[in-house]
Amino acid sequence: MILVYVTVVLNTKNVVVLTKLSLTKTFIYSSLLLSLLYSCNSKKDSQPFKSSKTALLSKLDSNLSEEQWDSVNATSPKVIQHKKVKRNSKYKTLGWHLYSNGTVYKNYNFDLLWALSYFSYKVNPTTGTPKNIGNWKTTAIIDSAKAHNCKVFLSVSNFGSSNNATFLSNTKAQEKLIDNLVTLLDYRKADGINIDFEGIAKKDKQLFSSFVNRISKKLKKVNPNYLITLCLYANDWHYIFDIKKINTSVDFYTLMGYDYYGNFSSKAGPISPLKNSSEFGNGLEHSIKYYLKKGVSPSKLIVGLPYYGAEWYTKSENVPSKVIKYKSSPTYSTIKRIYIDSLKIPVQFNKESASTYLSFKEHNAYRQLWFENPKSLALKYDWIKEQQLAGVGIWTLGYDHGYPELWNLLAEKFSE
């Protein structure tokens, strides 16, 4: 283990200067893993950019057990004791659990969750069979959720314009997927699905609507109580979601309220800005107004927010600053453990976006890292409640592992 040794100097422009820096082998490895998780290549997709999940499913080995993932992730065995609370049934709180997060769910406060979505059944676009389903058949997370009256969904994912074009034009593959879902949902006594199809080409809009209607109709025929939830893009560049045609088939919409800025950006900025601004453009406010205008009922709209950040090498300490190169997408726990607790970089708040960021200098290079913390999330939670929306979603549970403050905030805002 290499000791962390750092001298921190705060210059007159509130930019932290790191004069000496060594990191642990664990952090170096974690950074590589996170880069693998979140690296995206926007040129290969019909969308102007891919979401933070795009590269994830194509590059991770799903054959590992949860304990093996714990070893890969160097997961701390630390257990957090949560206060007993009762969720306010007025709001829907949904969290995604990524199968590669191993057993971090042992620290989840299931009492605060309306539903958990296990990510994911990755669709083979030519057959409809799963490329992987993680540890869906054996994971104890489902038993834990059920013991706390938390609903369980299986996420169904398909990324990329080519994959979506192949699958959406193949009714046989769709039927196979539906048959498999019937079996898998029944096997774990789950409550429904969360559809996450990203990078759909404009030409496949109608095919996608037909697929949503088909899968909803057939699953509800098997079990009328199954819930069908559908992920919406923060920016629907190609007008993929024909709400009028699919609305009766969808019980809840989950807005992916993140990746407004990322590895595709020419300047550093908030990945989940609240309001629209001249500095950063559209934010959650714009996305929500867009979908409400399209016909989504406020009572059916769940707003997903990120438990990760985005870091860039920048040309200056200015906000916003032009980007030299994208660096990584660290989780909240990594940001806390390395940047804030170890390196003592002060957290700054941007009023225009209601987001937090770090600005520092290392080896004569400027860096900015934007993320959400309790202060910024509290503002967004309050705003979502003021708009009388259905609730909030979390991408992804476990990215705050070892730190209780985000769970405490959920308890403050969404418990009785």
UniProtKB/TrEMBL annotation:
Domain of life: Bacteria
PROSITE patterns named in the record: GH18_2
Protein's UniProt keywords contain Hydrolase: yes
Stored Pfam families: Glyco_hydro_18 (PF00704)
Residues making up the signal peptide according to the UniProt record: none
Species for this entry: Tenacibaculum aiptasiae
UniProt-listed InterPro entries: Chitinase_II/V-like_cat, Chitinase_insertion_sf, GH, GH18_Domain-Containing, Glyco_hydro18_cat
Name the UniProt record assigns to this protein: GH18 domain-containing protein
Biological process per Gene Ontology, one example term: oligosaccharide catabolic process
Molecular function terms, GO-annotated: chitin binding; hydrolase activity, acting on glycosyl bonds
Keywords of the record: Glycosidase, Hydrolase
Every GH18 domain range: 91-416
